[in-house]
Every structure is written in structure tokens, then in C-alpha cells.
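FORM 12-B: Structure-to-Sequence Request
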């Protein structure tokens, strides 16, 4: 059965259930300060860009968050500090009343028990349809390749250009976007940054974080740089900008 898709603008009563849906994001990823400051604002200030899917029992099983922003006034070039910067741009434009011309995907999440049913593609399609219905001609996405964590030391530029015999990307999430018609623009090398004390990193990962250098962490697309003498560690995540013409 095809899940029912709605927006929070149409069903504001679902906010708590959408926000409370279980997901599979690594704990440290949601500690990005830009995301922590801006992500909750999407539902509050841009509810028409928050979509969710319900199963036959009315349970929220997937969500899709996006934001509108003005790319043309910034020269049409997407930012190297991808996810973080586009969130800042979107809410800066909203505050100043700047007319947006592009929609950026921010997050597509599927509840752990509902994964493997193609819901990520359903939500991506719904996001594209929502943007098109609002008069936009392009959706961009700072994509987090979802199998890159299996190869944290592989250079991202090498990883993202791997293709299967059918020409589609080897990475499953990049492949979903490609099947929807997206093309790779470029790698955003510092899309998200999490800098924190060693105590925080130990709590988030269960690892000792007592050795200087690169530390592999579960779910990390690249290693975390650990500096025990200075008492902190830093994770700088690359994403892949993809463009969807509508």
C-alpha cells in the first residue's frame, strides 16, 4: 500500500509525531551546531516544506525536510560548506524577505522498522513535487552517501564517481537521487562540522578517544580528528551536491 504523504502546513497537529519519529542518524551527526540551531526552525517557520508519510495504521514512517533559498543572487554557485551554509542562507533570506528561487533538501529520514521499502525514494519524489507545485524549477541536495561510512578512508571524490555497469552510482543513496533525474554537481568538502570535547565524543561513540590522530567512528563518512593534548576532537563531513531539474 502506498503511504499517505502530507505536509505539516496542512496538518500542524502532527508536529510532535513527525519530530518524534525514530531515525537511524548517528548521535554525533545531530550535534552539528548549525543544524541544532536551525533544523527545528523548519517545522516552525516553513511547515509547508516538511513532508511526512504515514502507513496504513497512521504511524509516521518517513519525513522529508527542505528549505527555499535564493541561489541566483549568490551567483548560482552552491556552497562548499554545503548543509550548514544552505541552512544559514535559507533563514537569512526568510528573515530579510528575499525571494527564493531554489529549494534545498535538508533531510530525508525513514523510521528504522520501515527501511527497505523504498520510502526514501517516495519522500524524494514528494519533495520534488512539493517544490514544483510552489513554482520552483530546481531542487538541490547536499547528499550524505549512505554507504560511505563503510570506507571512511576512501577519498570522497573517488567514492562518489564509482558507477555500476548500468552507469548509476554505486552508492545506494546517490543512486536514488540519480534515478530521480539528479546529476552530481560537486563535493562539498566541509558540509557539516562537529567539534566537541573528548568527553562528549566518548559518550556519543563509546570509544576511548585517547589517541592522537584519525579515529574511525561508527556511521562516520570520514575519520574524526582527535587531539588529546588539547582535549577536543573534530569531525568534518563531506557531502555531495546534486541538482534536480524540475
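FORM 12-B RESPONSE
SEQUENCE OUT:
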Amino acid at each position: 500500500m502506498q503511504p499517505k504523504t502530507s505536509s505539516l502546513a496542512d496538518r500542524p497537529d502532527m508536529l510532535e509525531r513527525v519530530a518524534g519519529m525514530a531515525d537511524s542518524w548517528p548521535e554525533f551527526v545531530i550535534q552539528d551546531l548549525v543544524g541544532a540551531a536551525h533544523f527545528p526552525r523548519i517545522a516552525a517557520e516553513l511547515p509547508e516544506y516538511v513532508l511526512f508519510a504515514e502507513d496504513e495504521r497512521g504511524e509516521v514512517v518517513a519525513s522529508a525536510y527542505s528549505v527555499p533559498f535564493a541561489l541566483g543572487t549568490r551567483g548560482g554557485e552552491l556552497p562548499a560548506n554545503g548543509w550548514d551554509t544552505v541552512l544559514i542562507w535559507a533563514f537569512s533570506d526568510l528573515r530579510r524577505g528575499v525571494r527564493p528561487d531554489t529549494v534545498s533538501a535538508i533531510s530525508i529520514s525513514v523510521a528504522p522498522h520501515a527501511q527497505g521499502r523504498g520510502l526514501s525514494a517516495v519522500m524524494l519524489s514528494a519533495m520534488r513535487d512539493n517544490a514544483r507545485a510552489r513554482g520552483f524549477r530546481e531542487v538541490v541536495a547536499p547528499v550524505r552517501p549512505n554507504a560511505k561510512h563503510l570506507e571512511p578512508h576512501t577519498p570522497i571524490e573517488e567514492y562518489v564517481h564509482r558507477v555500476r555497469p548500468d552507469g548509476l552510482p554505486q552508492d545506494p543513496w546517490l543512486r536514488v537521487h540519480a534515478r530521480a533525474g539528479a546529476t552530481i554537481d560537486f563535493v562539498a568538502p566541509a558540509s557539516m562540522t562537529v567539534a566537541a570535547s573528548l568527553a562528549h565524543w566518548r559518550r556519543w561513540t563509546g570509544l576511548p578517544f585517547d589517541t592522537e590522530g584519525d579515529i574511525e567512528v561508527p556511521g562516520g563518512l570520514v575519520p574524526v580528528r582527535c587531539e588529546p593534548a588539547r582535549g577536543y576532537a573534530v569531525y568534518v563531513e563531506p557531502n555531495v551536491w546534486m541538482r534536480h531539474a524540475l
